[in-house]
Structures are given as structure tokens and as C-alpha cells.
């Protein structure tokens, strides 16, 4: 099985500036349900850590699905102004899943 046959995970932390924490929380929360309805989304979770950081965990069926998600206007608008809202650069990771994902449908050949 090649890497393109496995789901992709994207996860990381965002530390909002204190004066923007509520706005970042509202914005990130507003992405959850619409993103879960997007084709190719297998998981999308938002967590708030006790130190004020937000943790996002996403699983996508393919790079194409993730690229389509990243092109959505609300996400693009948020990302365009991200440095305004955050104290530091996001800490993010992007990986191919090694463990099987039972709900993932195989990609067409």
C-alpha cells in the first residue's frame, strides 16, 4: 500500500493572543460541524488545553480532500489573518497514518 492509499492526519496547537482568545474559540468552533460534512473528512476535533492553547486534530481520506478543505473561503479568511490572532506561529504536524482506518474507503485507482 502506498502512502496515497492511507488517510492523512493534521494536528497541532494554536496559542491565541489573550485579547483574541474568545474570537479564535468562536471561529475554530464554527468550523467543526461544516468541516465534518465535507467530502473526505474522517475526523475533525477541536480541544482547548488548560493553558489556553487550542489543539486541532483532523483526518482526511486524501490530500485532494484536504486541499479542497483548505480552499474554503471561511478557512482562507481565517488563515490570511492568523498572525493577528496568535502569539506565536502555529505548531503543526502533517502525517500519513500507519495504522488502518476502518472507515476510510480506498482511493480510486
Task: Briefly say what this structure is.
With 109 residues, the protein is of the alpha+beta class. The chain contains four helices and four strands, in the order βαββαααβ.
Explain how this protein is built.
By secondary structure, the chain is of the alpha+beta class. The chain has one domain: 2-Layer Sandwich (Alpha-Beta Plaits). Helices cover 33% and strands 26% of the residues. The chain has a 4-stranded antiparallel β-sheet. The mean pLDDT is 89.
Determine the CATH topology. Alpha-Beta Plaits
Detail the poorly predicted runs: none
Provide the spatial order of strands within the biggest beta sheet.
2-3-1-4
Shape estimate: globular
Give the quaternary arrangement of the chains: single chain
Q: How do the SSEs run, as a string of H and E? A: EHEEHHHE
Q: How would you state the average pLDDT, rounded? A: 89
The CATH architecture would be 2-Layer Sandwich
The major pleated sheet works out as: 4 strands, antiparallel
Instruction: Give the total of beta strands.
Output: 4
What radius of gyration results from the CA coordinates? 15 Å
Total tally of structural domains: 1
CATH class, named Alpha Beta
List keywords for this structure.
109 residues, alpha+beta, Alpha-Beta Plaits, 4 helices, 26% strand
SSE arrangement:
Blueprint: E1 8-14, H1 21-36, E2 41-48, E3 54-60, H2 63-70, H3 73-80, H4 82-85, E4 91-96
Amino acid at each position: 500500500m502506498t502512502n496515497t492509499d492511507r488517510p492523512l492526519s493534521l494536528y497541532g496547537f494554536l496559542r491565541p493572543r489573550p485579547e483574541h482568545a474568545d474570537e479564535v474559540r468562536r471561529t475554530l468552533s464554527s468550523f467543526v460541524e461544516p468541516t465534518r460534512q465535507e467530502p473526505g473528512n474522517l475526523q475533525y476535533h477541536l480541544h482547548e488545553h488548560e493553558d489556553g492553547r487550542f489543539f486541532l486534530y483532523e483526518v482526511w481520506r486524501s490530500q485532494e480532500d484536504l486541499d479542497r478543505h483548505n480552499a474554503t473561503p471561511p478557512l482562507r479568511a481565517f488563515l490570511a489573518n492568523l498572525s493577528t490572532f496568535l502569539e506565536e506561529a502555529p505548531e503543526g504536524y502533517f502525517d500519513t497514518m500507519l495504522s488502518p482506518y476502518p472507515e476510510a474507503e480506498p482511493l480510486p485507482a
